[in-house]
Amino acid sequence: MGFVSTILGFCGFGVGISTGLTVGYYLFIYFQPTDVKDPVIRPLIQHDSKSLQGLLPEIPSWVKNPDYDRIDWLNKFLEIMWPYLDKAICKTAKNIATPIISEQIPKYKIDSVEFESLTLGSLPPTFQGMKVYITDEKELIMEPSLKWAGNPNVKIAAKAFGLKATVQVVDLQVFAQPRITLKPLVPSFPCFAKIFVSLMEKPHIDFGLKLAGADLMSIPGLYRFVQELIKDQVANMYLWPKTLEVEILDPTKALKKPVGILHVKVIRAQKLKKKDLLGASDPYVKLKLTETKAPSKKTMVKHKNLNPEWNEEFSMVVKDPETQALELLVYDWEQVGKHEKMGMNVVPLKELPHDEPKTMMLDLLKNMDPNDSQNDKMRGQIEVELTYKPFKEENMPKDVENSDEVQKAPEGTPPGGGVLVVTVHEAQDLEGKHHTNPYVRILFRGEDKKTKQIKKNRDPRWEEEFTFVLDEPPVKDKMHLEVLSTSSRIGLLHPKETLGYVDINLADVVSNRRINEKFHLIDSKNGRLQIELQWQTS
Amino acid sequence: MGLISGMVMGMVFGIALMAGWKYMMGHRSRKRVAKAVDIKLLSSLSKEDMKKICGENCPEWISFPVFEQVKWLNKQLSKLWPFVADAAEAVIKESVEPLLEEYRPPGITSLKFSKLSLGTVAPKIEGIRVQSLKEGQITMDIDLRWGGDPSIILAVEAALVASIPIQLKDLKVFTVVRAIFQLSDEIPCISAVVVALLAEPKPRIDYTLKAVGGSLTALPGVSDMIDDTVNTIVTDMLQWPHRIVVPIGGIPVDTSDLELKPVGKLAITITRANDLKNMELIGKSDPYVVLHIRPLFKVKTKVVENNLNPVWNQTFELIAEDKETQSVIFEVFDQDIGQDKRLGIAKLPLSELVAETSKEIELRLLPSLDMLKIKDKKDRGTLTIQVLYHEFNKEEQMAALEEEKRILEERKKLKEAGVIGSTMDALDGAASLVGSGVGMVGAGIGAGAGLVGSGLGAGVGIVGSGFGAVGSGLSKAGKFMGRTITGQSSASRKSGSATPVNTQENGGAKPL
To answer: Is any Cβ of chain A less than 8 angstroms from the Cβ of B9?
Structure first.
């Protein structure tokens, strides 16, 4: 008897609990309002010490840490813009989602899926500080501390088999600390080629998920589980060192890397016009590629010759064969005074065949203006042989992502040895006693190389590269770099002056393959010199 | 028995479960909302809030200036600057050189940049302030300071004179740039940007002009023309309430609301002046008054000879574009042989006026509007005026706009006929250049490039105006014997030179 009673008791409990749950659901949850209200925000002044206590953990990083900068102006900007942004984003999201939904639902025998409400709420994301890092590399690093505790209301209603189910996401909160890196920096707008985004810590995500009005996330344990799941998913994708990469510019184009070499052979000129009063002209040819900063190349001067033969060869680095052009200028050399232009012509590189020599006979013109009547006059002709050799694809650096890393040494490097590449970037706070026209002199194994001189500048930028081919790794060697200044006036009063020097131990370079550092100059007050050293082996 | 007690227990349990769930829901929801409120509160803190939170332990590194500091942006900018400079140089060269060619006046065979370098010093953003002054608009003020070392050399080749490279260097730009973002419901949520320089504090643009390997005397009047051009560009095109409107995002929007439009008409009667300063050795001053809102539209009274308490009783109508920020400038001059001397200046902000009510105002005359420069505190007399401000309705506004266009058009014709001097040439030329400069701002260089654009505009000014003015400028050539001339287009630097006024009837070599 007791046994039956117990069975009945269990059955009763089963029936009772389902009725109870249903009654409870209708009693407590079903009639709950599902719309999201705007929270009441009291100004901080009105808070008492107790509610302030609750505020303390959320104090922004810029208050706590001096290395964070306040960006309340951006918060304000976002706050004003938020209602518009909200509408725009929701509209776009709806427009994107509707066709996808209508395509997908027939498969699952669902009648309709639609947004009952879609809004991001009235609270905008806020930035609780911004931190930037300065490195010696060509990159910008920013770390905003982003907190979005919003009150969005996304309610999706699905209808199937005459039943209606709603899923509602409310009170989404995302706290994250992304690191945004812009690199490499390039000299064309917007001045960086790629954006890398990566999360420094696992983000904090919290939200309410209401299924038919009941918030699943408030079931004890479930929320924690779901949150961990999402965190791990996000972390898998974007937690540092994993990064999201967005390409803005094609870095090869933006960096203007060399794509080929132009060989120019200046053969001869004929029927040049006489320019000097006494005797014939003294012609020479100046060659220049447009859009480069490289110095122009010159042939020898052929004295007193109106039909000179040079037969000299030059090679020039081409960066963009589509827009660059070769300028040929014939000048009359003078012992004293300005060299007079005898004529010129321009050959656009896109007219040249690849890898084949092309001999051209060019008329010399006064200028490149086709309407100028002065061009009708005969000024003679010049004969040149041009060969444009584009680099083969396999020679090109394929993946630009590794452009920062050490490249392979070029062919012809002795085995066991390699190439030491020294890049002199810039210097800061140089100070000369009498003049500051700095240039850098590199002394290494008896070799002596110099950069350009930059006049009257205490923070010069050279960006010059030098290479040394070595038979063995320079483990025991040192490199001596000194910054020198010479007077811009011809005067013996204050001749050459040393602005500071630095000795770099190359063992570090060999073991690290590449170092890029600002070295403090010895014998200088505050001077610093940024040097990049690479050890490339085959 | 067991069944019923089971059912009751089950029901109680079920309802309790649901009640518990509901409680949890409410609890979590309250927690989330509380957090959201906290974060919202902390997103923009004021000094009082800070005190409230931290009490005595407020960190020392925190301050609350009107313009919020942006150290991080400056750090990034200085790092990025070499690249920005390179990119901007290329863009400027590409976009401005054809324009130079277009505005090349006859007599000059070639006009090119032989050097264009923006220097190594990055502009500094002293602070940023964001306000919402009007529904649907964000007003962002950027305090920009650039004491740069750019070197811009413009190679001018004239047919008669040998090639004269003109160098612009040591450019200093201190100004507050106001950018107004017009918001819209479509991504990217900004339909147009309005850019202007704030009038208060007054923009300061200093630069040094130098003729490389020669002297600027070869082109008489050039530096004056450049200064004039820069000054006019700044005060009459860039300085608030004048503005440049850049539509953004490819959405066709009606930006006419953002453009500057006449909003009202000012009827000013210059009644009399009292106790004017005597500037003449023999007899008394011969005073007349020049008044303007925009320097482009100046009007002047008749001259009352030999009188320190003149009565004019002349009425003028001036158009106002922005009642909040504009003001009427009254300048009293003494007519003299040679240069007219200024007896005093006074300013009447339009914001003090009430629409449709006539008011008599007595203004104290000052030696200069720049309070820092006033040395003598001597009384310079007073000026009595009668003002009536009339606010335009829609039709009147359109009519005024048409009228303004007509006047400018007329002046252009006069200029073509050679009646008015050539400074307007320069103005037109420079105007379009500034436009291109601003286009670059849109492209994201920031105001620096825009200012460079205007700097270049000044360069064109040289050419547009300099040569036309050779004749009239010869008399002034003596002034420019030095090789280096420092131009400054800030406050009223014109005080010493010729009267910068001409009425329409006697149009001469100077702009109105």
So the answer is: yes
Summarised one tens digit per residue, pLDDT across range B298-344 is 888 888 888 888 888 889 888 888 877 788 888 888 887 777 778 88
How does pLDDT run across B31-40, given as a tens digit for each residue?
888 888 888 8
Chain B residues within 8 A of A66 when measuring between CB atoms: 59, 61
Are the beta carbons of A45 and B48 separated by less than 8 Å? yes
A150 near A205, Cβ under 8 Å?
A: no
- What does the alpha-carbon distance between residue A106 and residue B446 come to, in Å, rounded to a whole number? 51
Q: Which of the four pLDDT bands, split at 50, 70 and 90, describes residue B403?
A: confident
Q: Which of A299, A298, A297, A292 is nearest to A259 (CA)?
A: A292
Q: Is A3 on the interface with B (CB under 8 A)?
A: no
Predicted confidence band of residue B465 (pLDDT cuts 50, 70, 90): very low
Query: pTM score, two decimals?
Result: 0.71
What per-residue confidence (pLDDT) applies to B455?
A: 37
Residue type, B111: L
As a whole number, mean pLDDT of residues B355-377 equals 77
The answer to whether residue B83 neighbours chain A at the CB level (below 8 Å) is yes
Phi/psi region, residue A398 (left: phi>0; alpha: psi -120 to 50; beta: rest), is: alpha
Q: How far is B121 from chain A (nearest CA, A)?
A: 10
Contacts of B54 in chain A (CB under 8 A): 63
Chain A CB within 8 Å of residue B53 CB:
yes
pLDDT tens digits, residue range A66-82?
889 888 899 999 999 99
- Quickly name the fold that domain B270-394 has: Immunoglobulin-like (2.60.40)
Q: What is the dihedral of CA A19, A23, A28, A30, to 10 degrees?
A: 100
Note whether A436 and A472 are within 8 A (CB): no
Residue A517 has pLDDT above 80, yes or no: yes
Residue B429 banded pLDDT, cuts 50, 70, 90: very low
Task: Report the pLDDT value the prediction gives residue B474, as an integer from 0 to 100.
Answer: 32
Q: Using the beta-carbon criterion (under 8 Å), do A28 and B40 form an inter-chain contact?
A: no
Q: Which of B10, B39, B443 sits opposite A58 (nearest CB)?
A: B39
Kindly state the tokens that stand for B120.
């190594």
Q: Which of B1, B5, B39 to mutate to test the interface with A (most CBs of A within 10 A)?
A: B39
How far does the CA of residue A72 sit from the closest CA of chain B (Å)? Answer: 5
pLDDT digits (tens, 9 = 90+) for B225-240: 667 767 777 777 778 7
E-only strand ranges, B382-461: 382-391
CB A332 within 8 A of CB A282: yes
Find the CB nearest B14 among A16, A186, A214: A16
Rounded Cα–Cα distance for residues B407 and B428 (Å): 15
| pLDDT(B391) > 80 | yes
Fold of the domain built from segment(s) A418-537: Immunoglobulin-like (2.60.40)
Q: Which of A389, A318, A317 is nearest to A353 (CA)?
A: A389
ipTM: 0.72
Residue-range domain boundaries for chain A: 121-255, 256-390, 418-537
Q: Is residue A213 packed enough to be buried (19+ CB in 10 Å), middle (13-18) or exposed (0-12)?
A: middle
- Please give the C-alpha separations between residue B259 and each of A202, A520, B108, B195, B247, in angstroms, as whole numbers: 48, 54, 36, 11, 11
Please give the Cα distance from B103 to B227 (Å, whole number): 18
Other beta carbons within 10 angstroms of residue B350's beta carbon come to 21
Residues 183-202 of A with CB under 8 A from B: 185-192
Residues 57-86 of A with CB under 8 A from B: 58-60, 62-64, 66, 69-77, 79-81, 84-85
pLDDT of residue B214: 61
Any idea which fold A256-390 has?
Answer: Immunoglobulin-like (2.60.40)
C-alpha pair distances (Å), A407 with each of A424, A508, A535, B143, B512: 18, 17, 9, 44, 64
